[in-house]
Amino acid sequence: MNQNDFSIAFYDTRPYDRDAFTESNKKFLYNIDFFDFHLNEKTARTAKGYKVVCAFVNDILNEKVIDILSECGVELIAMRCAGYNNVDLKAAQAHNIQVVRVPAYSPHSVAEHAAALLMSLNRKIPQAYLRTRTGNFTLNGLTGRDLYGLTAGIIGTGRIGRIMADILSGFGMKIALFDVYPNKEWAEQKGYTYYPLEEFFKIVDVVSLHCPLTPETKHIINKNSLSLMKRDAVVINTGRGALIDTVALVHALKHRQIGGAALDVYEEESKYFFEDWSVNVIRDDTLSRLMTFPNVIITAHQAFLTTNALSAIAHTSLNNIKAYVDGDELKNKINIEE
Ligand code: NAI
After folding, report:
1. Domain containing 54: what range?
2. What is the pLDDT of residues 121-175, one digit of tens each?
3. Distance from the CA of 196 to the center of ligand 1, in angstroms?
């Protein structure tokens, strides 16, 4: 197959995606059409004439969408992200559509953002920034805690979680871990400890989420786990929104059961994140309530957003597509049992 007449439809793209992919595509020379709208049931027919669709975290690739993509002649879904909880893999398999992803681009980008969220929350940097911008140089209400000596809890000790553990260990924090597949050798070598989940929640001062979203991890932060946590513990989520039961989180924050939360992802983010709602009415009362807490920081799924990560995402995505075009082994294919 000639790669020059191999067309790819890119969904939910922003200027930074287009820049990175256009640069990387100089080596590949695919026909790329960038769309700024999401892939979903309403838009899926725009894939007509494309063999590949390239989608992102908030595109919807459920059974209905995949049925339409198949009718449109799509053969490959190239996710330009690590997570794939939004793809119905069984539906893709039923239509013989392959699904590839970018399993790792820069785990540092995400771990460093998680650390930045923790530091900002703990030392109240957003409030301090806003105060000094308006000439208010007072310090009342800005007291934080030394992280040194506190216990950081990492859920999910894969690529990102392990880097986060090392960063926080660098601050002098003790490291507590939870993973259903513990990496015991690594933990032993580093002097970190795995705990059963209930004990984990009781001892940590910080919980940072780095596991994938699966039926088992959905709402891993819930009414029960929040009630086990120390009253000044904070939750950092750069994983996926639905790892947290947000209604339970709001309740815990309202009743001062925990110390705060810093969230890069949100259960119902797909309608809002990556869009400008500043002159619109936000109708999601849970998101609106979250934004009112002084001890909550929200960033809009930007943990991956570094130049290093963007160019690695573009390079791996286009290489995944090249492997398909060339009939090579799909190293980054998502298998149903993953
Ligand atoms: P990874 O696959 O290297 O590590 C995931 C870890 O979670 C593994 O050690 C696995 O054993 C563990 N895990 C699986 N099921 C679990 C369970 N039930 N309980 C506890 N641990 C469990 O993945 P990586 O690259 O570290 O990424 C982690 C997650 O971060 C991704 O799944 C994705 O959802 C999220 N992410 C968020 C980004 C953002 O911009 N906010 C960007 C990239 C990834």
Report:
1. 3-105+306-326
2. 999 999 999 999 999 999 999 999 999 999 999 999 999 999 999 999 999 999 9
3. 18
Nearest CA to ligand 1 atom 11: 181
Number of structural domains, the chain?
2
Distance from the CA of 299 to the center of ligand 1, in angstroms? 19
Residue 160 lies in a domain: yes
- Identify whether residues 155 and 287 lie together within a single domain: yes
Distance of CA 277 to the CA centre of its chain: 21
Residue 152 burial by Cβ neighbours in a 10 Å radius (0-12, 13-18, 19+):
buried
> Do 33 and 101 have their domain in common?
yes
In a domain, 59, yes or no: yes
Asked whether residue 101 falls in the same domain as residue 131, the answer is no
Question: Could you read off the pLDDT of 24-71 as tens digits, one per residue?
Answer: 999 999 999 999 999 999 999 999 999 999 999 999 999 999 999 999
Q: Which atom of ligand 1 is nearest to the CA of 158?
A: 4
Whether 332 maps to a domain, the answer reads: no
Q: 260 — alpha (psi -120 to 50), left (phi > 0) or beta? A: left
Are 35 and 47 in contact by the 8 Å Cβ rule? The answer is no
